[in-house]
Task: inverse folding
């Protein structure tokens, strides 16, 4: 009877969840007592753990979220360069590895323009952007994986080698994304990229100099790509890169508009500039004309305007660079910069 009562009593006690590991248990033994971790979505990969930044913590990691951010601009990736803006696969890999070693973490142009910057404390955001939707940027092989030698394949390889280097980039495309001729091929490429955390967005239909076009044709150039991307499964673009970096006479038309029932409203419009961008939290940040840096060495015109020069400059001037506090709910800055923040961002200010 005593045994029967004891058994019934145990059955009525509510479960307390997984048993705790005994003191001194090995790592393997402890792991068997913990609940399984959920599978991360592609857009969650590489996100930092939750951090609450205090002024003391921000000072410790030298956070400066009003600092400069390099937005790097790439065009064709070719084994043999035919233009000064081309980069070889080896040069692309070398630059990615340099960024990883120096503590940079890629974010998309959309994340940057909207201020959704989630980078571990003490590290620096970088935006990798590819213009024109060239076949060298992305292709799928017969097995449905990124083709070797493409920009995406190289980025994924570098990210595997340097786990903190988040495999994220933005691809701004024209009327024939990645040189693919059929809608089925285009849709497969776009959906693979979007499904794996990449951004595919607007670079106008035929890559014209928008400065030379009337406003109605500017809207047509942009809206036609919006209609295509929505049809292919990319959704509405949050960002757009100006062909040649040329602003139309109506700056407003580059940012938002409507043509034949297709509307667009971008969080950020990007130039083909020659210097790092201001932080999206900075008072003087202009989301309608965001600066970029051409990826290149330090020869000719690039002696002071391309990626090698600027990455070296930022390393020599660390106080000018954006340094994350690891807390997306605060904007941490040295006290001397507190007046440079946008008015709407002041409630998030964490000055030290």
Result:
């Amino acid at each position: 009877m005593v045994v029967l009562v004891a058994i019934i009593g145990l059955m009525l006690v509510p479960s307390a969840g997984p048993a705790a590991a005994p003191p001194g248990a090995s790592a393997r033994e402890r792991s068997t007592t913990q609940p399984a971790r959920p599978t991360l979505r592609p857009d969650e990969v590489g996100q930092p753990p939750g951090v609450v930044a205090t002024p003391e913590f921000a000072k410790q990691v030298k956070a400066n979220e009003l600092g400069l951010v390099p937005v790097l601009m790439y065009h064709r990736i070719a084994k043999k360069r035919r233009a000064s803006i081309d980069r070889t696969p080896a040069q692309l890999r070398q630059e990615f590895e340099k960024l990883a070693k120096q503590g940079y973490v890629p974010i998309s142009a959309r994340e940057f323009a909207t201020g959704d910057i989630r980078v571990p404390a003490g590290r620096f955001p970088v935006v990798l952007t590819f213009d024109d939707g060239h076949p060298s940027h992305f292709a799928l092989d017969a097995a449905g994986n990124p083709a070797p030698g493409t920009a995406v394949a190289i980025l994924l390889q570098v990210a595997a080698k340097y786990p903190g280097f988040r495999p994220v980039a933005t691809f701004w495309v024209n009327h024939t994304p990645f040189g693919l001729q059929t809608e089925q091929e285009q849709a497969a490429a776009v959906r693979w990229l979007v499904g794996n955390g990449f951004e595919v967005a607007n670079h106008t239909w035929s890559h014209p100099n928008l400065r030379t076009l009337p406003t109605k044709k500017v809207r047509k150039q942009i809206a036609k790509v919006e209609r295509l991307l929505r049809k292919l499964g990319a959704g509405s673009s949050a960002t757009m890169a100006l062909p040649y970096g040329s602003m139309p006479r109506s700056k407003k038309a580059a940012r938002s508009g409507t043509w034949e029932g297709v509307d667009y409203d971008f969080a950020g419009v990007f130039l083909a500039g020659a210097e790092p961008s201001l932080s999206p939290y900075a008072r003087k940040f202009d989301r309608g004309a965001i600066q970029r840096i051409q990826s290149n060495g330090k020869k000719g015109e690039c002696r002071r305007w391309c990626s090698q020069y600027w990455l070296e400059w930022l390393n020599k001037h660390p106080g000018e660079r954006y340094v994350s506090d690891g807390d997306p709910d605060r904007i941490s800055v040295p006290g001397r910069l507190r007046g440079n923040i946008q008015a709407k961002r002041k409630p998030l200010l964490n000055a030290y």
User: Anything to note?
Assistant: The chain has one domain: 67-347.
